[in-house]
Give the backbone structure.
Amino acid sequence: MEVMAPKTMFEKIWESHVVSDEPGKPSLLYVDLHLVHEITSAQAFDGLRMNDRTVRRTDKTVVVADHNVPTKDRDKPLVDEIAKTQLDALAKNTSEFGLKYFDMFSEKQGIVHVIGPEQGWTRPGMIIVCGDSHTSTHGAVGSMAFGIGTSEVEHVLATQCIWQAKPKTMEIRVDGTLAAGVTPKDVALGIIGKIGTSGGIGHAIEYTGSVFRDMSMEGRMTVCNLSIEAGARSGMVAPDEKTYEYLKGREQCPTGMDWDNAVEEWKKLPSDEGAKFDTILKIDASEIVPFVTWGTNPAQVIPITGRVPKPEDYPNSQDQFAVEKSLKYMGLQGGERIQDIMIDTIFVGSCTNSRIEDIRAAAAVVKGKQKSPSVRALIVPGSWLVKQQAEKEGLDKVFLDAGMEWREAGCSMCLAMNPDRLDPGERSASTSNRNFEGRQGPGGRTHLVSPAMAAAAAITGHFVDIREWDYVDA
Amino acid sequence: MEAFKQHTGKVIPYDMPNVDTDQIIPARFLKKIDRVGFGELLFNDVRYTPEGSPKEDFVLNQEKYAGGSILVSGPQFGIGSSREHAPWAIQQYGFKVVIAPSFGDIFRSNCFQNGLLPVQLSERDTQTLIQRAQELSDYEITVDLEAQEVHDSVGFSASFEVDSFRRDCLLRGLDDIGLTLEKTSAIDAFERANA
Ligand code: SF4
C-alpha cells in the first residue's frame, strides 16, 4: 500500500486549487471568493471595459464600500469629493458588471474582512483574495486568504484565477493558557514583537497550539489579520468544532445534507500528524502579556508594565537610528513608563478589532464609568450586523453614557480616508493594525492595543494595566 | 489587449534623451480613479504653460505632427518610477509604437502589458527617423512586428530584436489575462470537477 506523505493544511488547500502547473512558471490557482472594495478596484474595472471583458464568476465576487465611507451623517451628501468619486465609480461598476454590492446604506455593509466570515462567504478550504493586505483575516476559518494588487484584481475578475508562486510554510505554535486580560491582540503583537515586521516574509503561517484551539473565532480573526504585519501574506487556523459552530446557520453557508457533507470535507483539512513546516516558532502563553506599541511599526512593542526604549538600549547603530526616528515622530524621549503616557483619542474599530466580541470587551471596561474629559473616544463597529447586535445588548448605551461616540460601520480611523482622523501631534490608543507615520492622519501618533486596553485608556486618560482593572458587575 | 502585427503611421519626433516617467506623466496626476484620461496629461509640464495653454514649440502642439501614432525619441526613454500611468498616457494620446535607442526596464515591460510596442533601434537609425520626420511632411513609417522590421517608402529599413515570449503575446493580443484566458478549458474543467 502506498503511504501518503503527511501534508500541511496549506499544502492541501493549495494542491486542490491548481488549475495549471508548468515547470518554471508560477501556478495558476482557482479563486473561490473574490472580495472587492472601492479603493483598489476602479482601474481594474476600467481594464475589463477597455478589453471588452466580463466578470467570469459574478457569484463568487462580493463588493462592499468600506474604506472611505463616513461613519456618521450618512443621510447627508458626502463632503469628500474624492471619496464620492470612488464610491460613485464602485456603484456604476458593480451595476454594469452585474455584481453583488453592499453600499453604505445596505444592512450587509461593513469592513470587507468583517462581513466575509460574518455572512458565511468565508468558509474552510477556500482560496480567498481581495485587493487589500489584511485579507489574511479570513484564514481564521481554515482558508487560504491573501491580498493582491489592482492588476491582479482585474485578472481575478476576468478569469477567477490567480498566478502564484508557492510560499514557504511556517508554524507558529503557542501553547499554554492566556492569563485574564490577555487577548488575541496581545498574542499577535507578542508574535510580531518577537519575529519583527519581516519575520514572516515569503511564508504562509499556520497558528497552532492550545492558545489558538481555546481562542474564539473572533480572536482567531484578529490574529490572522495581523499576519501581514509580520510580513506574511496569509495566516490560518485549522477548522474545528468552534469553526463549524460559528459558521452554522450563517446566510451563505450550506444547509441540511449539504452542510453535513461540507463539514465532512472540512474535517480533512487540518495538517496531518508529522507534516513538515519550513519554519517553526514556539512561544509559551506565559510570555504573552498586555502589549502596547510605542513606535512607528507594529514590531516596536513593549509590555504594559514596561518603559519606552532609548536608542542606547540597542547595540547596533542602525537600530539606534530607527529607534531615534520613531521616538522623534512619536514625541517621546525614551525611558518613560508606558503607563504615564497621556492620550488624546481612543479608537475601537478596524478589521482587526471591531467584531462583537471586541465591542463587548470594550463595553465591559467602560460600564458604569465616564471617559476622561480630555479624551475623544470613537467606537466604530465593523459591520451593520455587529452594530445591531451590540445595540440589542445595550452596549451602545454603555458607550454613550460614558460620553463616547457610537458610529456606523467602516474602516474609519484605521486609515483616515474618511473624516475620522487624528490631528497633527494627536496621540491615540487604537485597536487597529498599523502605527505607521501618518496612518491615522498626517502627524498623528498611534499606539496599538487591545479593545479592553483602549477602553481603559479612555477612562483614565493614560495607558493602564488591564489586568488590574476594576470591572463593574453586570 | 489588441493584437499587434503591423502598424503604419505618422512619426512624431521628440529628440530628447532621458525622458523619464515623471516627464511622461507627473506624479500629481496619479490620484485619478480611472485608467482613462491620461492622454491629455501626457508630457504635461513640457506641453503646457503653468496656466494650461499649449506651448507652441512642443512637438505635440505642432500642426505638422497632428495625428501621429509613432513616437521616436532619444536614449533611456521611460526611465524612473514604475508607474503604469506612463504607457497608459502614451497609448491614450494615440501612439501605437515608441522607438528609441534604449528604454527604462520597467517601462518597457509595462508597455508590453498594455499592448504598446517599444522598438529599440540604433542611435543612428533613430536619428535618421527623427530627421526625416522633421524635414518631410506627413512622414510615415511601417513597423512590422512579425518581420521584426521598420521601413519607410523612401529607402529606410532596419530590423529590431524583441523578446520572443513578449512578441508572441503581442502578435496574439495576449496580456497576462489573455494568457490565462487561453487556459479557459482548464478553468472550465476545474469548475466542472469542483462544482
Ligand atoms: S479596517 Fe483598516 S486595515 Fe482593515 S481593511 Fe479597512 S483600512 Fe484596511
Q: What stands out?
A: Chain A has a mean pLDDT of 94. The radius of gyration of chain A is 22 Å. The longest strand of chain A covers residues 168-175. The pocket of iron/sulfur cluster is lined by residues A 66-67, 111, 113, 132, 134, 350-351, 411, 414-415, 432-433 (CB under 6 Å).
